[in-house]
Amino acid sequence: MHELGIMESAMAAVLRTAGENRASRVHRIVLRVGSLSGAEPDALRFAFDIVARGTPADGAVLDIDEVPARAVCPDCALEFDADAAFITECPRCRRICGDLRQGRELELSRIEMS
Amino acid sequence: MPSPTPQVTEYKDRDGDVFRVIVPGPDPVFAVDLRVPLLEKNDQLAEANRRDFRKRGILAVNLVSSPGSGKTALLERTLDEFGREVRCAVLVGDLETDCDAQRLRREHVPVAQITTCGACHLDAAMVARGAENLDLGGVRVLFIENVGNLVCPASFDLGEEIRVVLLSTTEGEDKPLKYPPIFKSAHIVILTKTDLAKPLGFNEAAALENIRRIAPGARILTVSSRTGEGMVSWYAALGAALAGG
């Protein structure tokens, strides 16, 4: 359950941003979470309810944009989906490469506040 | 979302009738788009660790695997052999006890135990605090033995130069397919306990193929910490990393 620590860190960034913008309430938070980030969206949601309690983000909506893993073949430059078992094998030339274009994201992307 | 609070002003005319003027406030809800890494603080601390280790000429090696796959045994032999030639230090993380620190303690090797009190991984702050408890004078390689766990340590940069993921023959050939994030993050994957491969009926070729499919960029080594088989290639990999290769 490292998602609790991740959400604590996220909440610190949310409250700091709200403070910088002189907002007193946070209404909606959007996260981008890659399928290879190592964090589980459901566990993040569970952790969010715990860490938001009693803060200006209490009751805010948490939306999670799940980012699928995608890779680029270094040989033929084809960009392809690597979410199936996370094997980055180019469907065209069958080369297995390590060149992930996306899928490791674990970031706070939007805050709606007032 | 709550509606904006309206501004209400009351006026009384000469007859004493009350007029109420209601001015709805502007929509106060606004959005900020940003790109803040959720582990921002850990990432910053990890970067500070990395700068510090580099400045002191220390190669930091993060060892990750499931519990019981042979991290401590690998380090014991490494300290006894490689550690005689190159000054090493160890930070070892566990939920409780200092059993591993005791196993690793040697006269020529500074060792510090990090007890995470239940946390499932090491983070950069723990490593920074742990390093303060170590005499790093003259140390060239700092091994950081992570908490035995194939899931959570994947997300936490400690400031290491190389991440080594271990897979033991007792765990089965398909572990890399089941835990892709951690294997994908590895610079080196070490297949351990190769002396047990035969009695276990372990299919080494299948295991290596699974590692290659998940972590095509990783260097793959096969070792037995008990017999010493393959250890030379591990020391060579450390030596190459020390030389900046």
Widest beta sheet: strand line-up of chain B: 6-5-7-4-8-9-10
Which percent range fits the helix content of chain B? 25-40%
* CA radius of gyration of chain B: 27 Å
Order of helices and strands of chain B: EEEHEHHEHEHEEHHEHHEH
**CATH evolutionary superfamily of chain B:** P-loop containing nucleotide triphosphate hydrolases
**Biggest sheet descriptor of chain B:** 7 strands, parallel
Work out the count of structural domains of chain B: 1
Q: What is the radius of gyration of chain A computed over CA atoms, rounded to a whole number of angstroms?
A: 17 Å
**What class, by secondary structure content of chain B?**
alpha/beta
The H/E string of chain A reads HEHEEEEE
Mean pLDDT of chain A: 91
Nearest-integer average pLDDT of chain B: 92
CATH class of chain B: Alpha Beta
CATH architecture of chain A: 2-Layer Sandwich
Q: What's the arrangement of strands in the largest beta sheet of chain A?
A: 2-1-6
CATH architecture type of chain B: 3-Layer(aba) Sandwich
Helix content class of chain A: 25-40%
CATH topology of chain A: hypothetical protein PF0899 fold
Largest interface: A-B, 38 and 39 residues
